[in-house]
Amino acid sequence: MKKEYIILSIPVTLIIGAILFLLFKSPDRENSIQGIVETIEIDVASKIPGRVSEILVKEGDKISKGEILARLESKEMTAKLEQAKGMFQAASEKYNMAKKGAREEEKRGAQKLYQQAKYQFDYASTTWNRFQKLFAEKVISTQEKDEMEFKFNAAREQMEAAKAKYDMALNGARPEEIIAAQGLMHQAANGVKETEAYFSELEIKAPADGELSKLIVDNGEIVSSGYPVATIINPNEYYVVLQVREDYLSNFEMNKIFKGVIKAGNKKEKFQVYFIAPMGDFASWKPTNQKGDFDLKTFEVRLKPLNKISSLRPGMSVNIELN
Q1: Would you say 204 and 46 are in contact if contact means Cβ atoms under 8 Å apart?
Q2: Which of 108, 109, 90, 87 is nearest to 98 (CA)?
Q3: Which of 281-290, 291-300, 312-321 has the lowest mean pLDDT?
Q4: Residues 229-250: pLDDT tens digits?
Q5: Would you state the pLDDT for residue 140?
Q6: What CATH number labels 27-39+235-321?
Q7: CB neighbour class for 269 (10 Å; exposed up to 12, middle 13-18, buried from 19)
């Protein structure tokens, strides 16, 4: 009976020991860390709102910088451009008028008005002199004299006003007026350029060479200002992103070269470290109740392939070997 107790106690002791070992042992050291292939993504957006009228590319196309991806239509922008052109034309005509002065017809018309006013003044002046003599001889009343004096003064004012208009027609605009008209014309011209610049944004162009990864809009859809229309990736800028626990970080140094296995095709290639995050992120390992344990943070590490790998695509898995 005593022997049976001894036999039963042996496996129980082994099981308890195994459980305690699994609970309190430190995290296992790994020989490789799995990373994900990523690349530079560019979201192409429109500066102005509009309706998509035409899409000229499809997903997967090779894109060149400056290539038109889509076109928008905007009746508001068309109206603003026509308005800006009209304002420039009006300002330009005013500047030309100020610079050239009055037309010959206007000069002749001003001259005739001046001559007519002068004739009226001469007649009023002669009559006024006669009325003054008659008043001195007490032939006319004071009221009649005052009425004639009023007509004489009015005729003189009309002649002087006509003379000023005639002189203005002969001399043209003042230098200050010409400069002001020129400034308004330049302002209107810049308004046209600004509107044309916005109008050109109705053609959404690729900002860089790459590959069209995703089309976000469809024909007929209305897009707002800053809304992404498409996403372009750079096929020559692939890199591997690792989330490295801090107790493994000592394995990584800038420019250090590692071997990595690309899961797709099980190919082995060389990768070089070019970025190590200066600050840790979320904790990837939580401490147990064992005294002295603490959270282990992760650091982002990026590696680029030493040689161009044509088969490498974003989202692929790569195992980076630590040995």
Answers
A1: yes
A2: 90
A3: 281-290
A4: 999 998 888 999 999 988 888 9
A5: 84
A6: 2.40.30.170
A7: middle
Q: How far is it, in rounded angstroms, from Cα 281 to Cα 168? A: 79
Query: Residue 79 and residue 107: Cα distance in Å, rounded?
Result: 39
Closest CA to 35 of 309, 301, 269: 301
- Alpha carbon distance 125, 117 (integer Å): 12
Contact call for residues 318 and 35 (beta carbons, < 8 A): yes
Q: Please tell me the distance from the alpha carbon of residue 230 to that of residue 41, in angstroms, as a whole number.
A: 10
Q: In this structure, are strands 257-262 and 267-276 parallel, antiparallel, or unpaired?
A: antiparallel
Are 319 and 263 in contact, with CB atoms under 8 Å apart? yes
| Inter-residue contact 45 to 229 (CB < 8 Å) | yes
Q: In angstroms, what CA-CA distances link 209 with 23, 26, 62, 115, 118?
A: 53, 49, 8, 76, 78
Q: What is the reported pTM?
A: 0.56
Helix (H, G, I), strand (E, B) or coil at 43: strand
For the chain, the structural domain boundaries read 27-39+235-321, 43-73+202-230, 79-197
Tell me what the mean pLDDT of segment 36-56 comes to: 90
| Domain covering 43-73+202-230: architecture | Beta Barrel (2.40)
In the three-class reduction of DSSP (H, G, I as helix; E, B as strand; rest coil), residue 216 is classed as coil
For every residue of 260-316, DSSP letters joined together read: EEETTTTEEEEEEEEEE-SS--SEEE---SSTT---EEEEEEEEEESS--TT--TT-
For the chain, what's the residue count? 323
Six token digits for residue 164: 């000023």
Alpha-carbon gap, residue 75 to 312, rounded angstroms: 45
